[in-house]
Amino acid sequence: MKHKIIFLPDEEIIFSKHNDNILSVANSHGINIASTCGGEGTCGKCKVIIKSGKYNFKSSHFISQKEKEQGYVLACKTDIIDDLIIEIPAESRIEKISALKDEFFTPAESIEKSPSRPEEKIFTFSPISQKIFLKIDKPTLFDNIADWERITRCIYNKKPELINSHLNISLDLLKKLSKLLRDSNWEVTVTLTENNNLWEIIDIQVNNTAKNNFGIAIDIGTTTVVTFLVNLNTGEILNSKATHNQQMSFGDDVITRIMYSEKREGLEKLNSAICNTINELISALTLDEKISKDDITSASIAGNTTMIHLFLDIPPNFIRREPYIPVVNFPPNIKAKDIKLNINPEAPVFCLSGVASYVGGDITAGVLACGMDNFSTISVLIDLGTNGEIVLGNKEWLLTSACSAGPAFEGVGIKYGIRAMDGAIQKIEIHNNILNYTTIGDKKPKGICGSGLIDIIAELFKNGIIDKAGKFVKEKTNRIRKNENDEYEFLIVEKNKTQINQDIVITESDILNLIHSKGAVFLGLKVLLEHAGLNFDNISHIYVAGGFGTYLDIEKAIIIGLLPDIPRDRFSFIGNSSITGAKMCLISKQAREKVKTIAQKMTYIELSTEPKFMNEYTSTLFLPHTDINLFPSVKKYY
């Protein structure tokens, strides 16, 4: 029996089987409903409203009696037994991210080429794939070499630097060769790619199509997927687009997704979700630029270890089990046709090397992008996103670790926390008990994103509204109240001023969650420094990368104890360094070799088994820290 389901407000129509689960059906049809627990019913994020039809809802404490009367259910706990009209309320929608232009990638890219850093290496332009137009001598009785050898001779004449390299061609292409050459009157464009000094022709096109050679750089984030379309003849970024990773409906963090992958058909669903996400972005890029997907002749991909495993359809099971071993840190070269990537089927796909279970190619890309491994001075890369990773070192050595900070800085686990999207509160100030805020896109607020969460805690602390333990000082403001769970909360925006028609608040448990996250990041850096026999004063520069780094207020991050209290001119925002590193590898062989060297050079410190981390963690669970001498500039707020 089939049931017709209409999802509002977009009026998307799908059909489901009897007793199908609403969340599963929505996921399988690309209708994204928020869920941080992978459909286990433990997060309460997937609330939807049944406008009409019969259904079977397994009761949940996340749905109040008043909400039940209004038709609210959890999508993951509701089975379909009739035709339904379902509204996805604003707070449960995963909004699409709009196209990203130059301002998104400029900060990180400028570091690579900055004339103020002469010690940084500028990589030579040598893209993964290149096109060459050939005018081939026609065979005669006196020049009767075979078609394939005739092509190789022409290539060597035009590119003498390849004479000592071996040229290869696939059997499928070889079968088409004689007809191709004669139909084109011996004028063709060959697409070449190189791997370990072995050059392969992956495509042959009729006439001169050399100007149509494009590559795709991809950052597979746990939350967001970003793509750059690059002209491989010039290195120019033609267009960029981003959207939410469709895997989010199966869980917000890597551990939840690994657990989901272990379910029946779980890995297949997660793999399809990320491939669909990337292919939708590629389709949008090719449509914008009016190019053929077959002219995208190579791809370079950065992502954390779990994301790369799921993209390659490799079981990630043992990443989360001690001793935390991935299947692969240095993925082999792959062809697009083997991984459902919707570009030229023969296009080579380069995955940036990872280091360990929780430090992947997104971090080696970040090191490549900021160039910290070229300096004699000590630098730090901190990537703040769904996961928290840190790299410490210089050109001689690199230490790295992943902080068990959780995805709180992406809004996960926070009552009104959301990702950076239109309507997200990104900046907050409190002065004389008056609260002002700004939102992304200047839209009515629908929640608070990472930079806004850091701002609100810093402002509450500065104004004495919370103490150093994160507890409310009730007499300071009339914005503090008790909620239905008998917990104190602070009112940020009244419901009549929001998109979601609910008061936006921050609770004491939200604050504690964020304090735990900031403590893990700060202590992770401190432990790495102690491993190297260094202290905070030895740091010459800190590069802040990640999803909300661009909006992060350094001063407020120091006030809450997230970042060390060192001179502010030692901090740089470098935006999405993962996509920048992926793009660098797409257009330079030197960068591809360098990123492998960076991964081999890194020493990974597992903080979960590090005694110093466990012993000192409780010291970080205060604002900014139990040892105020570590934060001299914050003493004035005590």
Outline the structure in words.
By secondary structure, this protein is of the alpha/beta class. It folds into five domains: 91 residues, Beta-grasp domain (Ubiquitin-like (UB roll)), CATH 3.10.20.30; 78 residues, Ubiquitin-like (UB roll) (Roll), CATH 3.10.20; 140 residues, Nucleotidyltransferase, domain 5, CATH 3.30.420; 159 residues, ATPase, nucleotide binding domain (Nucleotidyltransferase, domain 5, 2-Layer Sandwich); 77 residues, no CATH class. The chain is built from 15 helices and 29 strands. The strands form seven sheets. The chain has a six-stranded mixed beta sheet with strand order 14-13-12-15-17-16, with helices on both faces. β12 and β13 form a beta hairpin. α6 packs across α7 and α9 crosses α13. The radius of gyration is 27 Å and the shape is globular. About 4% of the residues have low confidence.
Strand content: 15-25%
Q: Which stretches are low in confidence, meaning pLDDT under 50 for 5 or more residues running?
A: 98-120
Distance between the termini: 66 Å
What is the name of the CATH class of the largest domain? Answer: Alpha Beta
CATH architecture of the largest domain: 2-Layer Sandwich
The CATH topology of the largest domain corresponds to Nucleotidyltransferase, domain 5
Helix percent reads 25-40%
- Main-sheet strand order equals 14-13-12-15-17-16
Query: What Rg is obtained from the alpha carbons, in whole angstroms?
Result: 27 Å
Total strand count, please?
29
Number of helical stretches of at least 4 residues: 15
Whole-number count of domains: 5
Q: By CATH's scheme, which homologous superfamily of the largest domain applies?
A: ATPase, nucleotide binding domain
Largest beta-sheet characterization? 6 strands, mixed
Q: Structural class, judged by helices and strands? A: alpha/beta
- On the 0-100 scale, what is the average pLDDT? 90
State the shape.
globular
